[in-house]
Amino acid sequence: MQVRRQERLTQAFVMTRSDVGSLHSTFEKHVGNVRLEAKCADQLERTFVSLDEFDRFDNPEQRAIRQLTFHARESEFRVTASLAFDNDETRNVFISIEGDESQAIPLNDALDGQISAMRPWYAMIARTDWTWILLGALAAFILGALVVGSIISVPSNQMSPADRQGQSRGTLFGIAIGIAPWLLGFALNRLRSRLFPMATFAIGHGEKRHKNAEILRTVVVIAFAVSLLASVAAAFLMRA
User: Fold this and answer.
1) C-alpha–C-alpha distance, residues 158 and 161, integer Å
2) Is 165 exposed, middle or buried (0-12, 13-18, 19+ CB in 10 A)?
3) Higher pLDDT, 53 or 233
4) In the chain, what are the domains?
5) Among 38, 53, 79, 81, which residue has the least CB neighbours within 10 Å?
6) How confident is the model at residue 162 (pLDDT cuts 50, 70, 90)?
7) Alpha helices, DSSP H only, in the chain?
8) Is the pLDDT of residue 160 over 70?
9) Of 122, 126, 129, residue with least CA distance to 181
10) DSSP 3-state assignment of 65?
11) What is the pTM of this model?
């Protein structure tokens, strides 16, 4: 029986040299001939026909890997497979398997496990879209304001000139508040992409870059946690 899988996944990942070796071994075991293709920051695509050749590429920052694809083909064409990892914000892992069921099923199971194992501790943060969170908070605020406004509203025929002027200023303020989540969300998402990227190729020089980024991520998370606890403690003490 012939089976086929073609699927794009959205998953944050950290790929190390060990992961490359494990995936290469999985393709060799279940399929056969394997080659790797890397799209790099210098806009060049590099092909590696063996792990030894891949190891000679040190992944410097100016030629950093942006996408890495594994291609495997069984000599008698009973199974073909590919697995691509890139740094897109969504649908950044592509898996394709086609061939005989007896070979495709164990390959599929092995790849699923290895892909999941590459998920970093900050995976949830990496997928957070701050624009939608801020818009949700704004919607809740507006709903609350409408409820309060309906209770304490003054009929238009009883408004003084000062009330009408205040209402106009309130309209302008509302427009500014409506724009703010988009601008702030854009800025926070840019910061999130740099500190908590969806794709990290911790290979060669990339391993040092990843370690340096981990220190910065840890500092940011700790600072946020301390700030949050301080705010909660301050609120508690003010009520006491």
Assistant:
1) 10
2) exposed
3) 53
4) 2-121 (3.30.310), 124-239 (no CATH)
5) 53
6) low
7) 17-30, 51-55, 101-117, 123-126, 130-152, 161-195, 205-239
8) no
9) 129
10) strand
11) 0.81
Closest CA to 15 of 119, 101, 100: 119
Tokens of 114: 């290895």
Return d(Cα 8, Cα 200) in angstroms, integer: 18
**Structure tokens given for 128:** 């957070």
> Taking each helix axis from N to C terminus, what angle separates 130-152 and 161-195, rounded to the nearest 10 degrees?
160
Candidates 109, 37, 105; CA nearest to 72 is 37
Strand-pair partners of 38: 46, 68
Q: What is the pLDDT of residue 76?
A: 75
Q: Which residues pair with 72 in a beta bridge?
A: 34, 81
Structure-token match 């599929």, residue found: 108
Q: Which amino acid is at 144?
A: G
Q: CB under 8 Å, gap of 24 or more: what pairs does 151-160 form?
A: none
Q: Which two tokens stand for residue 110?
A: 């092995």
The token pair at 79 is 């199974």
